[in-house]
Design a protein that fits this description.
The complex is a heterodimer of chains A (438) and B (908). Chain A has a single domain, classed as Beta Barrel (AttH-like fold), CATH 2.40.370.10. Chain A contains 5 helices and 23 strands. In chain A, the strands form 2 sheets. In chain A, strands 1, 2, 3, 4, 5, 6, 7, 8, 9, 10, 11, 12 and 13 form a 13-stranded antiparallel sheet that branches. In chain A, strands 14, 15, 16, 17, 18, 19, 20, 21, 22 and 23 form a 10-stranded antiparallel sheet that branches. In chain A, a hairpin with a 5-residue loop joins strand 16 and strand 17. In chain A, helix 2 packs antiparallel against helix 3. Chain A starts with 15 loop residues before the first helix and ends in a 9-residue tail after the last strand. The N terminus of chain A is likely disordered. With 908 residues, chain B is of the alpha+beta class. Chain B has 3 domains: 189 residues, no CATH class; 270 residues, no CATH class; 184 residues, no CATH class. Chain B contains 30 helices and 22 strands. In chain B, the strands form 4 sheets. A 9-stranded mixed sheet of chain B has the order 8-9-7-10-6-5-12-3-13. A 9-stranded mixed sheet of chain B has the order 18-19-17-20-16-15-21-14-22. A two-stranded antiparallel sheet of chain B has the order 1-2. In chain B, strand 5 and strand 6 form a beta hairpin. In chain B, helix 14 runs parallel beside helix 15 and helix 16 packs antiparallel against helix 28. Chain B is elongated. Classes of the chains: A mainly beta (438), B alpha+beta (908). At the A-B interface, helix 2 and strand 4 of A face helix 3, helix 5, strand 9 and helix 7 of B.
């Protein structure tokens, strides 16, 4: 028989008068909490338009908002662990906010040993995870195009206690984009679904992410297979790596800010050789070849509250080397944090900290649509070696101010050293549309 | 307008038409008609009654039409808006189908987007108010039926601030939480909650599950006003449907062949899961109630017919009475055409008045009925629909026109008669009989009457058209018309027989003989008014027979279908195997049988049929099911019904399916199921159970008044073997020798909150109450027809007596005693009533049989045993007889006081 004084299973029995108050409190006045939730909502509901960047920013905002809200919310302070003690699990959760706080996301700590193929797969306990693939493709006798495919897994922290497989405990988001100079703009597509019904899933133990008929999988020969049938293009790619995974940071523990909690597990697979077939628009399917860069990152807490946005590059160098560099920007445009990893052609790896990485804009482009100015030409200096990045085309802006509320730039770039082309890759510029207001 | 010179004679204005120069225009005729109406005395009451009855007929018909159209419009509109932009809908049995089906649909190349839905209905914990909800995945639903997502979705995005947009996106995301519930405005009212409040619903195990009301549904979508939307996982949990879905709504990829897609999809789906266009689904649901609605409308039309007949008799009598007046008018120069027009305009005026009154009455009746009986008039078809009455110009116009036409039709013959009065002859008294002689002796009338009756028999063989027993209705119309036409002949016949019988007696009673001979001598007057009486009496008798047969059959059916002493549960209860065992072990329980119900889709264009898995002994199904002998009864009507069915199904369809298969497991199908599938005892039927198709042998057909869409009974053990579903919805309990129902109820207290034990007596009483509620409208119509009959009777009898004032005065002058005159009048009244009863009851019996065997069988697919309500009919006869005597006595008094000389010289 249900206990009449605590009708909701999974809810601690509070003072009835207080619970009465809470019952009547509408959603509206919970301002700080709501703002955080909204950012998270926006990011997840962005459906890949903002890609992993916007989502990550959103979720970190949520977390900080919750951290602010938790002490002031007496209900949340008494919140139990996610599994209610001694009771049958049910979808009933505590009042707004406490359910979020009750979910335990594991922290990213140094000392984790990465193993493959296990860590190619998903890590469902963590809040956020993505498999991010960018590269250049050449069609026979045609111009080069840039492509980006990202599969994203999010654990929104809802329905954790509900014993129903179809609950939205994990969300799978996929975003794809193609930069073709012939079209002079990005063409993109996105999907989002809950990991249920056998249609969307990110498997553990091996790289296999799917969303309806979109796939990103690693086969038994360690080749990454990509199948995307988007609205305006199709991609069927096979990517072959040479060499081991490039663990970022300290053996995969990659710091993103001054506080120790701001970090992620992060490794890359640079210098992937791509072969496959692409069909753009109504054109016929054409074979392509190229190079790609693959990132896999997972985390529970990502960005410092004062972050406005970040810049990131992943460059495959012609001599077989690989370069990854990023910086987190604060309000004034100064770097809050930065880092870089260089793998030389002989396999040696160098890691560099914030003091050694400098991002310097050398050319601006203003979007005719949003009016935002992006430093699409950048000079990145890592340990006093400078690379100049020039974009495949200027307009590789993702303008989703009507949807997500933000616009950012993510495009194929060529790396120059002095007067020589030394490599190709992708550059991502976020947070230039004022503060990332999601 | 012509200047008329006129003279006034005895207060009557006499126009002189010879002086005009041109034919009278419409306005002149109208004026004449109005003056005429105003001038005629003595008939105002009768005319007023005729107008009132017409108004009633139009009012009832239009009211029923309005209620039905409004309810139906809401119902299909609800389905349409719920379906939204979905092109197709995939549905299966009520217990749902596996989620893997959804994956197959999404990955099909012809599908642009698909949205999984779980439908359910669970009570709210505190108030037990049933909450109907849809469990959706908002991320999928937004591409197929965005109306289901909270109404506060991004609209006009560019104009909103960042905050507002962020709010809206947050709502989209909050919809993923399983403890969030979005409710329609009407649901919030019913539950007395507002946004932000907590609400608990009881799941199938009876445990409370908490939700927070996070927002409202789009108020522009009226279909969602009574419902709630929650996350699909929460819905699955509430309904115990983990891993299953109720339906999948699909949007088709542009460029796909929409005709082929359903077939392609169905091939990949398990048995019992079909692809339908959502509007088709709505149409077939509405179809089920169509028969009921049409029946009601036809009943109302018959009331209109009676009104028309009343006008006919009123006009006929007044034309007969004022024959001399018309002859005079003709003599004064009014042409035939003008006189006809004048009469018809009078009828038009009366009809318009009646129809307009009726239209106003209709809206009043409709509003009252909607407020008290609900949109389905108590029949239960449109549950959950609360429409508001709307002005329907077309229907109002049509019914008003119908009323006017009925009045014109009723007045047509008398008007023609008035016009044809030859001026010279018409001025002589006694010309009435000549005029109406064709009615009583004309051969054409006899032939047309008999032809109508034969036509009726032919119509009985007609198969139903689109589920509507058109043949039955036409047969009823022909029988009514035919009998009305033949009434005068039959009256003459009856009077002849009576006269012969009286003369044969050694000392014939003079009063009686004179009464009969008087009637025989001038039967037209009585005959004409008799027609109206026969029509209304037969209508009343027919409906009494039908309703009584139905009620008695229903009562005995209830006893057969509810053999146990107490019942526990309903479709919303789910008893696990353990709980069933626990119930069986109770000391108060002598015997228990369980029932599990599900809905099966046998074909995409049919409403799903109920599957009832019962603990039934296949060797003795009669103990639990009211089996009928074969698919139809026996006798002429049954073989005619069989003939109709054969024609409806097409030749050879029965033959090809008649394959005896004794090794198959048995099922018993209801009459409705037999009618809808066209199958009968001894044939096989394929049923999709547990995702696969299984073949069964039809062992019997049983009578089912509860489910119009068809029901199939299967052994529960077999059902469990096929599906692995051990749960039960209903328990039928027999008490142990010393136990009482209250003790058992107390012992079952652990189920409190989920279901309450009911003893069979209260269930039966409640069912009968529901039955009576459903027939409230029919009872009302019976009352109206009886009222019409009585009005007709009283009015016409009085007139007849007054008509013969002259004769009666002469008789008095010849020495007949006053008391004997009174007896004479009373006897004549009784004779007319007797004739009306004899003819009315016979015709009513025929119409009642047609209603039972044809209309009900074809509309609702159920059979009834004939039970004539002798008591009620006897009461009706007695009532009519008493009224006749009363009228006769009152009329006699009026005559008594008349001056003999004056009444002889005066025209009546």
């Amino acid at each position: 028989m249900s206990n009449p004084t605590s009708p909701l299973r999974g809810e601690r029995s509070t003072d009835s008068s207080r619970s009465q108050e809470q019952t009547r409190r509408p959603l509206q006045p919970l301002k700080p909490l709501r703002r955080g939730l909204l950012r998270a909502a926006a990011s997840v509901a962005a459906l890949g338009r903002g890609g992993w960047a916007a989502t990550v920013l959103g979720l970190s905002g949520l977390h900080s908002a919750l951290a602010r809200a938790t002490p002031s919310d007496p209900a949340a302070a008494q919140a139990p662990a996610s599994a209610p003690a001694g009771g049958r699990p049910s979808p009933a959760s505590a009042p707004v906010g406490a359910a979020e706080a009750a979910v335990n996301y594991p922290a990213v700590v140094p000392g984790y040993r990465m193993q493959f193929p296990r860590d190619h797969g998903a890590h469902p306990a963590f809040r956020t995870e993505w498999w991010y693939l960018t590269g250049w493709l050449e069609q026979d006798g045609g111009e080069p195009i840039g492509f980006q495919v990202t599969f994203f897994r999010s654990r929104p922290g809802v329905a954790e206690a509900l014993p129903v497989p179809s609950a939205a405990r994990q969300l799978i988001i996929a975003h794809v984009a193609v930069s073709s100079p012939a079209l002079a703009r990005l063409t993109h597509d996105q999907r989002v679904a809950r990991a249920a019904f056998g249609l969307a899933a990110a498997s553990e133990g091996q790289m296999a992410v799917r969303l309806d008929d979109w796939r990103l999988e690693m086969d038994e020969h360690k080749r990454i297979q990509v199948r995307i049938a988007a609205r305006e293009f199709t991609l069927e790619l096979e990517l072959q790596g040479a060499g081991p995974a490039l663990l970022q940071g300290e053996a995969g523990f990659s710091r993103k800010g001054p506080a120790p909690a701001q970090a992620s597990y992060y490794y890359s697979l640079p210098n992937l050789q791509v072969s496959g077939r692409v069909a753009l628009g109504s054109a016929a399917v054409r074979p392509v070849r190229g190079q790609a860069w693959f990132d896999h990152e997972w985390s529970s807490d990502y960005l410092a509250g004062q972050a406005v946005g970040w810049d990131w590059i992943g460059i495959n160098l012609a001599n077989g080397a690989a370069l990854m560099a990023f910086r987190i920007r604060g309000a004034a445009g100064a770097s809050v944090w930065a880092g870089a990893t260089v793998r030389h052609a002989d396999g040696r790896e160098d890691r560099h900290g914030p003091s050694e990485v400098v991002f310097e804009p050398i050319g601006q482009w203003q979007s005719p649509r949003s009016g935002i100015r992006y430093p699409v030409r950048m000079r990145v200096t890592v340990a006093r070696i400078a690379w100049e990045l020039r974009p495949l085309m200027d307009d590789q802006e993702m303008d989703d101010r009507v949807g997500v509320g933000t616009a950012y730039w993510e495009g194929a770039v060529v790396a120059w050293s002095g007067q020589q082309r030394v490599g190709r890759g992708y550059l991502e510029l976020t947070g230039y549309a004022g503060r990332v207001e999601m | 307008m012509q200047a008329e010179s006129s003279s006034v004679m005895r207060g009557v204005r006499i126009p002189d038409f010879h002086r005009r120069s041109a034919p009278l225009g419409f306005s002149a005729l109208l004026l004449e008609a109005v003056r005429d109406l105003a001038a005629y005395r003595g008939a105002r009451l009768r005319l007023a009654l005729a107008v009132a009855v017409l108004a009633l007929g139009v009012g009832l018909g239009l009211a029923i039409h309005l209620i039905n159209e409004v309810a139906l419009g809401e119902f299909t509109g609800a389905i349409r808006t719920l379906a939204g932009q979905a092109d197709l809908s995939v549905r299966g049995p009520q217990s749902g189908f596996a989620e893997s089906v959804f994956a197959q649909i999404v990955l099909h190349p012809g599908v642009a987007a698909a949205s999984p839905i779980v439908e359910g209905e669970r009570p709210e914990r505190a108030s037990r108010v049933l909450v109907r909800f849809l469990g959706i995945d908002p991320l999928r639903a937004q591409f197929v039926e965005p109306a289901l997502i909270s109404g506060r979705m991004p609209q006009g995005r560019a104009s909103k601030s960042a905050d507002e947009r962020a709010d809206e996106r947050a709502e989209a995301r909050l919809g993923l939480r399983t403890d969030r519930l979005f409710a329609g405005v009407r649901l919030l009212e019913r539950l007395h909650r507002s946004i932000g409040d907590r609400i608990e619903l009881l799941d199938v195990r009876g445990e409370p599950v908490g939700f927070v009301i996070a927002g409202t549904l789009d108020p522009a979508v009226s279909a969602l006003a009574d419902r709630a939307v929650i996350d699909i996982a929460a819905a699955q949990y509430l309904e115990g449907m983990v891993g299953r879905l109720s339906r999948v709504d699909v949007r088709v990829r542009p460029g796909t062949d929409e005709g082929q897609l359903p077939t392609q999809l169905t091939r990949a789906l398990p048995a019992g899961v079909t692809v339908i266009a959502p509007l088709e689904g709505a149409r077939s649901d509405a179809q089920v109630s169509r028969a009921y609605r049409i029946n009601l409308s036809v009943l109302a039309l018959v009331a209109l017919f009676c009104g028309s007949l009343l006008i006919f008799s009123a006009q006929a009598l007044q034309v007969a009475r004022r024959r001399a007046h018309f002859a005079l008018l003709r003599a004064l120069g009014l042409t035939e055409g003008e006189l006809l027009s004048q009469q018809l305009i009078q009828a038009l005026l009366l009809g318009s008045l009646g129809a307009l009154l009726g239209a106003c009455l209709a809206y009043g009746i409709a509003a009252l009925a909607l407020a008290h009986l609900g949109a389905d008039l108590g029949s239960g078809f449109f549950r959950g629909v609360t429409p508001s009455l709307r002005w329907d110009g077309t229907a109002t116009g049509l019914y008003t026109l119908g009323g006017i036409l009925a009045a014109l039709a009723g007045a047509a013959l008398p008007a023609l008669e008035a016009a044809r009065v030859a001026p010279a002859r018409g001025l002589k008294p006694g010309a009435l009989e000549d005029a109406w002689r064709p009615l009583t002796q004309g051969r054409s009338v006899l032939i047309s009457g008999l032809a109508l009756l034969f036509a009726a028999m032919g119509f009985l063989l007609m198969p139903p058209v689109g589920g509507v027993p058109v043949g039955g209705y036409l047969a009823i119309a022909c029988v009514l018309l035919g009998s009305v036409v033949l009434t005068p002949r039959v009256l003459v016949l009856l009077l002849g027989v009576l006269s012969m019988a009286l003369r044969r007696r050694p000392a014939p009673n003079a009063v009686a003989l004179i009464s009969v001979e008087q009637l025989r001598g001038a039967p037209s007057g009585p005959a004409v008014s008799l027609a109206a009486m026969v029509a209304s009496v037969s209508l009343a008798v027919a409906m009494m027979i039908m309703v009584n047969s139905f009620r008695v059959s229903f009562q005995s059916w209830l006893e057969q279908i509810l053999p146990a002493q107490a019942y526990l549960g309903d479709a919303g209860l789910r008893l696990s195997a353990d709980e069933q065992a626990r119930i069986g072990r109770l000391p108060q329980v002598g015997r228990v049988e369980f029932l599990r119900s599900d809905e099966l889709r046998l074909s995409p264009d049919q409403v799903p049929m109920m599957l009832l898995a019962r603990d039934i002994d296949p060797a003795n199904p009669r103990a639990r099911l009211p089996l009928v002998e074969g698919p139809m009864g026996a006798g002429l009507v049954a073989s005619m019904a069989a003939e109709r069915a054969r024609r409806a199904l097409g030749e050879g369809s029965l033959a090809t399916r008649a394959v005896p298969l004794s090794a198959l497991p048995p099922v018993w199908i209801s009459e409705a199921a037999a009618a809808l599938t066209g199958l009968t005892v001894g044939q096989f039927i394929d049923l999709p159970i547990g995702g696969q198709t299984h073949r069964f042998r039809i062992d019997g057909i049983w009578r089912d008044y509860a489910r119009q869409q068809g029901a199939i009974v299967i052994e529960r053990a077999h059902y469990q073997a096929l599906t692995g579903d051990l749960s039960a919805n209903i328990a039928a309990l027999w008490l142990a020798p010393a136990a009482t129902v209250d003790e058992l109820r107390a012992a079952l207290g652990w189920l409190d909150g989920r279901s309450r034990l009911k003893d069979v007596g209260s269930i039966r009483a409640f069912s009968l109450t529901l039955f009576d509620r459903t027939f409230v409208v029919t009872y009302a119509l019976v009352a109206v027809s009886v009222l019409i009959g009585l009005i007709a009777l009283a009015g016409n009898l009085a007139t007849l007596v007054l008509a013969r004032r002259g004769e009666l005065s002469v008789l008095r002058h010849l020495g007949v005693a006053l008391i004997e005159i009174t007896r004479m009048i009373a006897l004549q009244a009784l004779l007319i009533v007797l004739a009306a009863l004899i003819m009315g009851v016979s015709v009513g019996w025929v119409i009642g049989r047609i209603l039972i065997e044809v209309v009900n069988r074809d509309s609702f697919h159920w059979s009834m045993d004939l039970h004539v309500p002798w008591g009620a009919m006897g009461a009706l006869a007695l009532l009519l007889a008493v009224l006749a005597l009363l009228t006769g006595w009152l009329s006699a008094r009026a005559v008594r006081s008349a001056d003999v000389i004056r009444s002889v010289t005066e025209d009546w």
